[in-house]
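Hi support team,

I submitted a single chain yesterday and got back a structure, but I'm not sure I'm reading the token output correctly. Could someone confirm the output below corresponds to the sequence I sent? I've pasted both exactly as they appear in my results page.

Thanks,
R.
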Amino acid sequence: MIVNREGTAPHPWHADEAEEALLKLASSAEGLAQKDVQNRLQEYGPNRLSPAKKKSALARFLTQFHNLLIYVLLGAGAITALLGHWVDSGVIVGVVVINAIISFIQEGKAKKALDAIRTCNDPFLGRPDENEVFINSVK
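Hi R., thanks for writing in. Yes, this is the structure output for that exact sequence:
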């Protein structure tokens, strides 16, 4: 159990009632007024994912080998090679390389999906005044 400095379990944010959450966030069920949106945008910035650091394909591939289990398997492959068990050593190294290739491909797909999410328009989170309808996005 996680406890705070007072020795009590903290109240999880997701367990708040809707009214309590709105009160804590200084909001309402109708949304934020335009003035509040602008103030929060200035205070907190846009609601966007921060861009990831760009890695080369080679660097991304080599990071697939940066794992304790991979180190153990490579060590086992080296030991079996020293003992002259070439087939066993080849199988172990082959499994490590195949794992790295599959992980590299999956990471590439996940990166593309995240990039697609980043490029999506952020919906405007304001409350329309009277007859206004917001279709724009905050940029």
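A quick pointer for reading it: The two ends are 41 Å apart (CA to CA). Let us know if anything else looks off.

Best,
Support desk
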